[in-house]
Design a protein that fits this description.
Bound molecules: pyridoxal-5'-phosphate
Structural class: alpha/beta
CATH class of one domain: Alpha Beta
Number of strands: 16
Distance between the termini: 38 Å
Number of helices: 20
Strand content: 15-25%
Shape: globular
Largest sheet: 6 strands, mixed
Length: about 500
Amino acid sequence: MKYKSTRGSGEIKNAAQAVIQGIAEDKGLFVPESIPQLPFALEDMKGKTYREIAFEVIHRFFTDYTGEELQRCVNGAYDDKFEAAEIVPLVEAGGAYFLELYHGKTAAFKDMALSILPYLMTTAMEKEKEDKKIVVLTATSGDTGKAALEGFADVPNTEIIVFYPNEGVSQVQERQMTTQEGQNTHVFAIRGNFDDAQTGVKRIFNDSEFADELEKLGCKLSSANSINIGRLIPQVAYYVYSYAKLLEKGAVCAGDKINVVVPTGNFGNILAAYYAREMGIPINRLICASNENKVLSDFINTGIYDVEREFYLTNSPSMDILISSNLERLLYHLSAGDGAAVAGLMESLEKNKKYEVSEGIKTGLSDFWADFATVEETNASIGKMYAENGYLMDTHTAVAYKVYENYRKATGDETVTVIASTASAYKFADSVAASIGLDIEKDGFANVKALHEKTGVRIPAGLKGLETKEIRHRDVLDKDEMKGAVRNSLK
Ligand SMILES: *Cc1c(COP(=O)(O)O)cnc(C)c1O
C-alpha cells in the first residue's frame, strides 16, 4: 500500500516513510492510495480480541511493516496500561452503545492511537535506516498533548514538544501536561487558541530553512497530530471492533447496518469511522456532533466551510477548533482523488477563510448527518443520562449523545447506534459534577473527589494524585515564539 498527498504533487511514500514524515512536502496530508477491504468476513469477527482486530486492520494499511514488526507494535501498545481488560468496552445506556475509548493512560481516546504511534515511528526509523533524531511537534486542544507526552516520554532518539492554548484546556488537562516527566519532554502554553497552536506548528513544518537548520543538528520534524497517518489508521480498528462486539451481544446480525456518532473537532476520529465503513463495516449514517464551534456541522449541512465566525471557549475544549485538518482527507476521497481540486480549496481557505465544495463532494457528504449542542444542552444531557440510567458521560460524549437524540427525533431512524465515548468524565470534573447536581468547588481536584464520592465511578490511575505532583513545565509563550522554543528545546 502506497501513500499519496491530498494535494496531488505525486509524492509517493510507503507507510513507514509517511509515518516518519508526518506531513507531505506539498503541505498536504498522506492518504492511502486505496482503502483496503476487511481481512475477515463479518460473521467471523465474533470473539476476536482487540489486539487481533487492531493487528489485522492496521496490517491492511501498513503493508510494508512485517507481521512480526506490527505484532510487536500492537502488543506493546494495547497491554495492561489500559485499565479495561477488553481495552475498549462497549456499554449500552440510554438507547445507544457507548464505545469507551478512554481507558488508556491519559483517560482520553487519544491514547488509542498515541499508545501505538511511538512503536510505529521507531519501527519505521529502523526500517528506513533513519539516523536522525525525530522531533515530534504537537499542537493540542488538551488531550493529544498528554497522550503524546506519555507515548513518547524517554523513547530513544525522539524529542516530544507540545503546544497547548493557555486558557483553552481544563485544569486537569493542564496539570497532566505540566507535570509530565521524561528527559525528552517539552511543554509550552501559547497565548492563543488551539487554531493558533496548530497553525504555528504547521508553519514550522513548512519552513524549509528551519528544516535545514535542524538537519545540521541531526534532527528531523514529525507530527503526533492526526495529520500523521500513523495516528489515523490505528483508530479505524476500534470501529471494526465495535461491530464485532455488537455481533457478540446479539445486537446486530452480520450485515445489519449501524449508525456511528462522533464528537468531532479535528475530524480525525470520524474520518477513521469513514475508513471503517469503506473497508466494509456496514455503517448507515456517520453522525458528526459539534459543540458551539459548529463549523463542521454547518459544512456538512451546506457544503460551505467558513471559519470567519466567532470562536467560543466551551466546556468540551477538545472540540474548540475551527480549522479541522482531517477534513482535507475526506475532501480528497469524495472528489475521487482530485489533488488539484483539494489544493484549490485549501488555498481558498487560507486566503479567503472559506470555500464551497463541488456538487460531487456535496453528494458524498449525504452519508453524513450533523448537528451541534450548546453548553447548556450538553450539561442537561449529562444530568439526564445520569439520573435516568446511572451512566456518567464526559462533556464531549454528551455533545454526541445530545446530537444523537436530535438525529433520532429528526429522522425517526432507530438503527442500532454506536457513540464514540472520548474521555473520562473526571477530565472535565467541574462541568460534569455541576451537571449531576453537585455543589462546585473552585478547585477542579476537589470536584474530582466529589464526583467519585457521589458516583463511585473509578478515578483513572493517571489522574490520581495529580494535584500534588511536581510541576515541571511552566513556559508561556506568544505564538510567534514557537520556533524559538523548538530551537531551545533541542539544545
Ligand atoms: C480530540 C478529542 C475530540 C475530537 O476528536 P477529533 O479526532 O479531533 O475530531 C473529541 N473528544 C475528546 C475528548 C478529544 O480529546
